[in-house]
């Protein structure tokens, strides 16, 4: 199991990268570091900074938002990053949701699955440089010839010669997009994937892989888990519940909420309905209390060393190839690196 370190710059008012923690992860043998974006700090710029301060860690976005950039811009940014850190870059993409796509980026939500397919196809064209980039899809067309067009657009080919095999990961959770991920992506950043729910995705993954003549051996699965070494499991689970309630009850719309869909898919439909009802009524404390313990605890690495070790073995029984964590202490990082069998890198200097 490869280990990833999540860096939540997206959630902060200032950009402050935990460089010592990142270097500690590199020295312990972690595989990757991951950034994200919503409507604050972007996902790519911090990775460029980290490219200059690390030597081994893969640098991934989980995720860069599809509505934030035309696909050619995404290809340009990640190809440039790859040129600065050869062989270490992962282009992780996600759709976001209609509130952010239309409210922040001014982009139509449209048909998200079709848009994602078009987007990946165009990024691949740029990276492979097999000819000028042109695409006639149901959601994205290049050259553009729609309303306001001058009619003078022409297909172009990247001046930069990128790594044609730069990996593309997709963050998806619904059946159609999971199938799409298994068909066209190099890796999957799953939503709602835990040891207790992994079986729910097996059929869609199989269908998507069959479309491209591949197997699970051809698809990385980089998922995530809460990590906390503690004697008080209850307090950690309770502390996580307001965030779950916010995502399930407050994100998206009545028709589009991926987090609520994930809760329903995992068999917690009644809880999802109750959380949404309470949250929309402004009863946020009650909404948090309505989050089931099992929902938070499934897949979480919380408790004593023995409990964390037992639960880490549950992750090994899934198709996950990588696990991203957000540790608070050095002790937690050392413990997980040991459980994962990481090879230390003694040549990485960690500031004291």
Structural account:
By secondary structure, the chain is an alpha/beta fold. The protein is built from 14 helices and 13 strands. α3 crosses α5 (112-128), α8 (233-250) crosses α9 (258-265) and α9 runs antiparallel to α10 (269-280). The longest helix is centred in the last third of the chain and has 18 residues, at 233-250. The protein is globular and about 65 Å long. It starts with a strand and ends in a 12-residue tail after the last helix.
Write the H/E string, N to C.
EHEHEEHEHHEEEHEHEEHHHHHEHEH
Low-confidence stretches: none
Which structural class do the helices and strands define? alpha/beta
Largest sheet: 8 strands, parallel, barrel
Radius of gyration (CA) equals 20 Å
Strand composition percent = 5-15%
Q: State the helix count.
A: 14
Cα shape: globular
Task: Summarize this entry quickly.
The protein is an alpha/beta fold and 352 residues long.
Write the layout of secondary structure elements.
Layout: E1 2-6, H1 19-28, E2 32-35, H2 44-53, E3 58-61, E4 64-65, H3 71-84, E5 89-94, H4 98-103, H5 112-128, E6 135-136, E7 141-142, E8 168-172, H6 175-184, E9 187-190, H7 202-211, E10 220-224, E11 227-229, H8 233-250, H9 258-265, H10 269-280, H11 284-289, H12 293-297, E12 301-303, H13 305-316, E13 322-325, H14 330-340
Parallel strand pairs: 1-2, 1-13, 2-3, 3-5, 4-5, 5-8, 8-9, 9-10, 10-13, 11-12
Antiparallel strand pairs: 6-7
Helix pairs in contact: 1-14, 2-3, 3-5, 5-6, 6-7, 8-9, 8-10, 9-10
Q: What are the key terms here?
A:
globular; 13 strands; alpha/beta; 352 residues; eight-stranded parallel β-barrel; 14 helices; two-stranded antiparallel sheet; 42% helix; single chain
